[in-house]
Amino acid sequence: MATRRLNVTIPVLTYHSTNIVDNTYAGNDHVALASDLEALHAWGVRVVSLDDVAAWYHGDDAIIAGGPCVALTFDDGSDFDAVDIEHPTCGPQRSFLGVMKDHHDRTGRSVTATTFVIASPGARRQLDERSLVGRDWWGEHWWPEVRSGGFMSIGCHSWDHVHTVVDEVAQAENVRGDFSRVATLADCEQQVREAGDYIAARLGGSRPAHYAFPYGQFSAYMVEEYLPGRQSSHGFSAAWTTAPRPVTRAESRWTLPRFVCGRDWGAPDQFRALLGRVFP
Questions:
Q1: pLDDT in tens, 54-113
Q2: Which of 49, 81, 154, 273 has its C-alpha lying 20 to 30 A from 112's C-alpha?
Q3: Is the CB of residue 255 less than 8 Å from the CB of residue 241?
Q4: Domain extents for the chain?
Q5: Region for 243 from its dihedrals, namely left if φ exceeds 0, alpha if ψ lies in -120 to 50, beta otherwise
Q6: 12-274 maps to CATH 3.30.540.10
């Protein structure tokens, strides 16, 4: 591969481990992740952590001295992120964690990701029953182990995702399916601070540093007032949308962008084209 110039942007790539329709690239984010890691390796693009991206965003160029890099994130935090499962229609599935470990063992290249988990046990229980197959595949038992394993860190994906299948959500009017309607202090306290509190309690007091907006949506109140004004309370250092562009230092740290597998690319050639646009 030809030598490439240092990053002036860093793309963050997002995958959903519950996307298992079949065993093809387009229908299975586990297949896509394994393929994409191989493509990144072939291109000479390193995988770095969200903390590394944050350090670069704040002016530290050390991480880009080694050449082009991306960061990986996983949304929703089902067990499929970290636990191999027998899918009822698609057979054995290697977890995202397992895919990363396999890639590391095969190539020797460092690989890490942040998984954004939903805090509320009740919401996860209803998601498991109504969005999966009710086999208790949306737990939290694996959070401490993966956090200490070096391949994955835990971020926050809100209290309840204001998901359409959840009966009661932390939104003043119980509006579901639209996170931009989380726009009061009380809503934000539960969706942000209390969610972070819950996750931290399961991680021995270690608070998550990164927050990902469900559906990539946010209210003006949340990003202009609550997140910057109450950081000492909620403890997050950055928040992530799903705006389809790489991170630059011109972004607000409360609305940082991410590319999403399946929406922004859906095949190996599309992924290579995305890399070509970001790393010309």
A1: 999 999 999 998 899 999 999 999 999 999 999 999 999 999 999 999 999 999 999 999
A2: 273
A3: yes
A4: 12-274
A5: beta
A6: no
